[in-house]
Design goal:
The model has no long low-confidence stretch (mean pLDDT about 95). A hairpin with a 7-residue loop joins strand 4 and strand 5. The protein is elongated and about 55 Å long. The chain contains two helices and five strands; from the N terminus they run H-E-E-E-H-E-E. With about 130 residues, the chain is of the alpha+beta class.
Length: about 130
């Protein structure tokens, strides 16, 4: 049986594909010729709890959105779509979850880490309680 963090990763990866976004599980390398905008389903974390017979606690995921210097609105819209997909998530394949409304952050910021380039970088952090 897959862990809740892998199931959460798969949920958002599939959501991105079904939304017709280019989705990666890593930041694409230059030779991959990724076009903007694209999504990287990123880091996951389990904050454990539980008993001898059940897994409780929290599972968190960070999703990154990348666009060129003219795609700020597009990136904001993408972040918002994934946010609402998280709000409506109740069941993973083997786990029931509920979003932790106190542990959601959304950011859209300029990124100049690529020489001579300005990008828009959206970041969505969402945490779910495992029921």
């Amino acid at each position: 049986m897959q862990s809740p963090e892998q199931q959460l990763f798969d949920y958002f990866y599939k959501f991105g594909l079904e939304s017709n976004y280019d989705v990666y599980d890593h930041l694409p390398m230059q030779e991959e010729s990724a076009t903007y905008p694209f999504v990287t389903v990123g880091e996951t974390q389990i904050i454990s709890g539980g008993t001898k017979y059940s897994l409780n606690g929290y599972v968190a995921i960070t999703i990154h959105f990348w666009g060129n210097d003219t795609q700020r609105l597009t990136i904001s819209d993408m972040v918002n779509r994934f946010f609402y997909a998280g709000i409506h998530l109740k069941n993973l394949k083997n786990y029931n979850v509920v979003i932790d409304k106190q542990a959601i952050t959304q950011r859209v910021l300029q990124d100049t880490s690529v020489p001579n380039t300005t990008l828009w970088h959206g970041i969505l952090d969402i945490q779910f309680k495992i029921l």
